[in-house]
Design a protein that fits this description.
- 80% of the residues lie in helices and 0% in strands.
- The chain is built from seven helices and no strands.
- The chain starts with 9 loop residues before the first helix and ends with a helix.
Length: 188
């Protein structure tokens, strides 16, 4: 019987890959893939993600093959690369999830504030409308002309038949009266 060729060691395969025989890396992957798969599968518990990370691990190992110390356990070296890849991804995912949660909370608070502000605005508008209803006709007309139709003080005075000074005083008193009335309405 002729002597059977013994399989090359992983270190021999690494030397061959480093010497330019890249096809030898296929044997390295086939030899160590199962062990790396177990480590990644335990960490992720997702078959598709495990397959992706095992592939990434061997790509990373290939890129760093020059850093591998001959004589060390290649399988352990690859498993360390795999664990680091998975941990980094889990940390990145956790950070992203935290950022998304913070942003979601921010939006909830911001929209809650918007909703509260809108509700407060509606309450103020209802209170102002109720207070305006209690005003005498001439006062309501002066307010409407000045603040809704944006007429000048002279034009408002002419329209309600008063002097400009009297109209200014009337509008000043009306603003104070409406402010107090709205505050009282809102407080109730």
């Amino acid at each position: 019987m002729p002597p059977r060729d013994r399989e090359p060691s992983t270190d021999d395969l690494v030397r061959r890959v480093l010497a330019g025989e890249t096809q030898a890396y296929v044997q390295i992957v086939e030899r160590h893939e199962r062990e790396v798969w177990k480590v990644v599968a335990l960490m992720l518990r997702d078959r598709e993600a495990t397959a992706s990370f095992v592939q990434q691990c061997f790509v990373k190992a290939y890129e760093r093959l020059g850093q591998y110390e001959l004589g060390r356990d290649f399988s352990q070296w690859c498993k360390a690369i795999a664990r680091n890849l998975v941990r980094n991804e889990l940390r990145r995912t956790l950070r992203e999830n935290e950022q998304i949660a913070e942003y979601r909370d921010y939006l909830l608070v911001a929209h809650a504030d918007d909703d509260r502000a809108e509700e407060e605005e509606r309450r103020m508008q209802r209170a102002l409308a109720a207070c305006r209803e209690s005003l005498p006709e001439v006062s309501l007309r002066a307010l409407t002309l000045r603040y809704e139709e944006a007429l000048s003080l002279d034009e408002v005075a002419a329209a309600i038949g008063r002097t400009m000074v009297a109209t200014r005083q009337l509008l000043f008193r009306l603003r104070l009266m409406l402010r107090d009335c709205v505050e009282k309405q809102v407080a109730e």
